Amino acid sequence: MPLVLNNLSKRYDNREKEVLNEISLTVEDGEFVCIVGRSGCGKSTLLNLIAGLEKPTTGEILLDGVPVTGPGADRTVMFQEHGLFPWLNVIENVEFGMKLQGISKKEREERAHYYLEMVKLIEYKTYPVHQISGGMKQRTALARALCMDSHILLMDEPFSALDKQTSNSLREELQRIWMETHKTILFVTHSVEEAVYLGDRVIVMHPQEGKIAKIYSIDIGCPRHVYTEEFVGLRHQILEEVRGGAV
């Protein structure tokens, strides 16, 4: 089920220039694609268009050949803010989306337990949300997103509000989960290191033109280690591209 963007552009009424300008891209089934760039380059807008939360000014988005015209069960979004309901406990939060979809109680419980095990939170399933840490809240949000069993997972800087140690731990978990589930993931981040650690490909957005500046293939096996010569070289190369585009 490939995701195809054809000449995708987006302009807001209060902006003279397009936020996105004729973006064309194909994301293959099971691919992990990271999108990096300076603030205001259109990363989150691109993700919102794919999610169906916004409509493009021109161009089209196709998922398995079918036009994307709005939100759908084939795409799940995970934002920077976890968006958990404070009046529900951990497992109730994880089951919430499935409950709205009318999934049976038995299947909801089975899926929730499976993914809470996967994100290492099963022992905390009955904890109120206010009693768990920020990192555990993001794990809960990740389990909730995975439970929806959508084909594509769209992640908009989900770890950026966390401390370095916690975000490093969560990206390791995400890499492991992706290797187990083979889900298609589009991941927006400000961190070039995070992008090189996670992605099959890294897309660098141009900061002024709303276009893709360059696409890097990350031909490093998983799991990855940030201190290897190959990793450091790629990180430096992509960081220079991001900084150069900003200049």
Can you characterise this structure?
- With 247 residues, this protein is α/β, with parallel strands linked by helices.
- The protein is 37% helix and 22% strand.
- The protein contains seven helices and ten strands.
- Helix 5 (164-181) links the parallel strand 7 (152-156) and strand 8 (184-188).
- Helix 3 (105-118) crosses helix 4 and helix 6 packs across helix 7 (229-246).
- It is globular and about 50 Å long.
- The termini are far apart.
| Pattern of helices and strands | EEEHEEEHHHEHEHEEH
What's the alpha carbon Rg, rounded to whole Å?
18 Å
Low-confidence stretches: none
Helix content: 25-40%
Oligomer: single chain
End-to-end gap = 38 Å
| Shape call | globular
The profile of the biggest β sheet is: 6 strands, mixed
How does the helix and strand content classify structurally?
Answer: alpha/beta
Number of separate helices = 7
Q: Order of strands across the biggest sheet?
A: 6-7-8-3-9-10
Compute the average pLDDT: 92
Strand content: 15-25%
How many strands in all? 10
Offer a concise description of the structure.
The protein is of the alpha/beta class and 247 residues long. The chain has helices at residues 43-51, 90-100, 105-118, 134-147, 164-181, 192-198, 229-246, and strands at residues 3-10, 20-27, 32-36, 58-63, 66-67, 75-78, 152-156, 184-188, 201-205, 212-217.
Layout of secondary structure:
Layout: E1 3-10, E2 20-27, E3 32-36, H1 43-51, E4 58-63, E5 66-67, E6 75-78, H2 90-100, H3 105-118, H4 134-147, E7 152-156, H5 164-181, E8 184-188, H6 192-198, E9 201-205, E10 212-217, H7 229-246
Parallel strand pairs: 3-8, 3-9, 6-7, 7-8
Antiparallel strand pairs: 1-2, 1-4, 4-5, 9-10
Helix pairs in contact: 2-3, 2-4, 3-4, 6-7
